[in-house]
Design brief:
- It comes from Paenibacillus oryzisoli.
- By secondary structure, the chain is α+β, with helices and mostly antiparallel strands.
- It has three helices and six strands; from the N terminus they run ββααββββα.
- Strands 1-2-6-5-4-3 form a six-stranded mixed beta sheet, sandwiched between helices.
- The relative contact order is 0.16.
């Protein structure tokens, strides 16, 4: 959903927001992300338009930063909300200089650090998840034998 709030007169440059080295001109929210938003973030503001408007405001106000310095797939909004996003090039869309514009695909909302303490260190959280799933699989395979 492109930013519909921005209105510009007599300009030919498409609207985008700089996020690191990416120029975000469009936001796409997956169905999984929408479900996670309603489960973990807000049950009342769960329409796609409201979620996109929230994300655009955070992008425009520079309240969205990478969670880790080197990786560009996990982002932190307002130092609390953890979001997983992917980027792809928008076809036939460039800025005035000719640099490609990007589409931000929101994969999932992991939650708020203020509510889920495990999100403070994602690497250990993911390793714990992998370990617990592996142990569940091992236990289930033992039952089948």
């Amino acid at each position: 959903m492109k930013d519909k709030v921005m209105g510009r007169w007599s300009t030919y440059e498409p609207f985008f927001v700089q996020l690191g080295d990416k120029k975000v001109a469009d936001i796409v929210i997956t169905n999984h992300a929408k479900l996670r938003w309603s489960d973990r973030i807000s049950s009342e503001n769960n329409s796609l338009e409201e979620i996109c408007a929230f994300l655009w405001e955070k992008l425009k106000n520079d309240n969205m930063v990478p969670y880790y310095r080197n990786e560009e797939d996990v982002y932190l909004i307002d130092d609390d909300l953890v979001v997983v996003a992917e980027f792809s090039h928008l076809e036939h869309e460039t800025d005035l200089v000719g640099n490609p514009l990007h589409k931000m695909i929101i994969v999932t909302f992991l939650g708020k650090m203020s509510e889920t303490m495990e999100l403070r260190d994602l690497k250990s959280y993911y390793s714990w998840l992998r370990h617990s799933r592996r142990m569940t699989l091992i236990k289930n395979s033992r039952k089948r034998r």
